[in-house]
């Protein structure tokens, strides 16, 4: 029996059952019945004929069987295209290894940052966290380390505790987003790929000649994208976390935005009054858990004539956007600045049951 196939210029040569198109459906059924149908290759058309890929050349008894079923056919060699197999999802892989009653608890949300995948393991899957991690590794070929969340984002440096549940354990990575590269380690800095749309949405509003203050810049996903998009720009990127500041400086160089983004290490309550009072046309406040406490600093950094604030917060309940806007308006009640108008208010993402991150863009005078 001859070799079943070999590759020729990206196509695969294999035995073919050549039949008139009118016999195509029946020929496929018969070839499958004989166990000869090669399901990894695509059926091909040639004029009035179809070529049905076979796993091997039929034996004499199989030829006899085919003759009794098909009034016209030939067995030849032909070039076929390989079927593109859809990648298996992590839950499908885990289904082979988990008790069936636990499948409903498999994490539906996976954050992938460079080669690092981050998941939240529900209590009922605690004893199977390695299975979850290995399934994610197998389903996502670019992933080399899988981390499970242990606690919430906390502390002045906004970091979270993780446990390595699969892979190499290497967590320093390079994440790519909107044409930018970000060096980071999710165990040392805050970064969320779920804010990709927000990074792009805010950057698309910035115009040439503006000065932007990014109050909680992290490793630079807002600041650097803005500077990549707008050449005539000045962005002050502030963060209190020394690790975030270290990666921010590295990312500024990696993305070629030196001179347009100025990295600053420190607390905005010190930095803005001392260095950035009245300089900004636009302020970004991506600190949703505490942004309301810093509205006065955002206003202080704006030019005398005012500007735009991109404000993020957490809110719960059915009227989360209304609640967020009302709190913001009340905060402005005792300030010298005023809200000229709210430009946009939208839900960014769900962060817990009945709790959302909300984005509000407001014009301040």
Structural commentary:
The chain has 3 domains: 6-80, Alpha-Beta Plaits; 90-171, Met-10+ protein-like domains (GMP Synthetase, Chain A, domain 3, 2-Layer Sandwich); 192-364, Vaccinia Virus protein VP39 (Rossmann fold), CATH 3.40.50.150. It is 25% helix and 30% strand. The chain is built from 10 helices and 18 strands. The chain has helices at residues 24-33, 60-69, 90-94, 129-139, 196-203, 221-229, 242-254, 268-275, 295-301, 320-331; strands spanning 6-8, 11-20, 44-46, 49-53, 74-80, 111-113, 116-119, 145-149, 162-167, 173-177, 180-184, 211-214, 234-239, 261-265, 282-285, 307-316, 339-352, 355-364. The strands form 4 sheets. A 7-stranded mixed sheet has the order 14-13-12-15-16-18-17, sandwiched between helices. Helix 7 (242-254) links the parallel strand 13 (234-239) and strand 14 (261-265). Helix 5 (196-203) crosses helix 6 (221-229) and helix 8 (268-275) runs parallel beside helix 9 (295-301). 37% of the residues are buried.
Structure summary:
This protein is α/β, with parallel strands linked by helices. The chain has helices at 24-33, 60-69, 90-94, 129-139, 196-203, 221-229, 242-254, 268-275, 295-301, 320-331, and strands at residues 6-8, 11-20, 44-46, 49-53, 74-80, 111-113, 116-119, 145-149, 162-167, 173-177, 180-184, 211-214, 234-239, 261-265, 282-285, 307-316, 339-352, 355-364. It has a seven-stranded mixed sheet with strand order 14-13-12-15-16-18-17, sandwiched between helices. Strands 1, 2, 3, 4 and 5 form a five-stranded antiparallel sheet that branches. A four-stranded mixed sheet has the order 6-7-8-9.
């Amino acid at each position: 029996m001859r070799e079943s196939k070999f590759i020729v210029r990206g196509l695969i040569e294999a035995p073919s059952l050549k039949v008139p198109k009118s016999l195509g459906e029946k020929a496929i059924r018969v070839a499958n019945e004989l166990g000869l149908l090669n399901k990894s290759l695509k059926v091909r058309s040639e004029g009035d004929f179809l070529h049905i890929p076979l796993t091997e050349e039929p034996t004499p008894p199989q030829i006899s069987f085919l003759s009794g079923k098909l009034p016209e056919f030939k067995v030849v060699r032909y070039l076929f295209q390989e079927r593109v197999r859809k990648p298996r999802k992590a839950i499908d892989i885990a289904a082979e290894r988990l008790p069936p009653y636990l499948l409903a608890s498999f994490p539906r949300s996976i954050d992938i940052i460079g080669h690092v995948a981050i998941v939240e393991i529900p209590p009922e899957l605690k004893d199977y966290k390695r299975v979850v991690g290995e399934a994610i590794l197998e389903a996502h070929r670019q992933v080399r380390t899988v981390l499970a969340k242990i606690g919430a984002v906390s502390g002045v440096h906004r970091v979270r505790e993780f446990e390595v549940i699969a892979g190499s354990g290497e967590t320093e990575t390079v994440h790519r987003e909107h044409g930018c590269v970000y060096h980071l380690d999710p165990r040392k800095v805050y970064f969320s790929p779920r804010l990709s749309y927000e990074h792009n949405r805010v950057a698309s509003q910035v115009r040439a000649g503006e000065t932007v203050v990014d109050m909680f810049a992290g490793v630079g996903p807002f600041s650097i994208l803005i500077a990549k998009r707008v050449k005539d720009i000045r962005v002050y990127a502030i963060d209190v976390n020394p690790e975030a500041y270290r990666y921010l400086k590295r990312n500024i160089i990696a993305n070629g935005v030196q001179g347009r983004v100025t990295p600053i290490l420190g607390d905005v309550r010190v930095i803005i009054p001392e260095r950035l009072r009245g300089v900004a046309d636009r302020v970004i406040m991506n600190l949703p858990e505490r942004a309301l406490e810093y509205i006065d600093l955002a206003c202080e950094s704006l030019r005398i004539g005012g500007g735009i604030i991109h404000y993020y917060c957490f809110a719960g309940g059915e009227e989360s956007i209304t609640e967020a806007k009302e709190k913001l308006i009340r905060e402005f009640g005792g300030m010298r600045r005023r809200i000229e108008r709210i430009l946009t208010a939208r839900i960014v993402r769900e962060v817990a049951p009945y709790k959302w991150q909300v984005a509000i863009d407001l014009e301040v005078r």
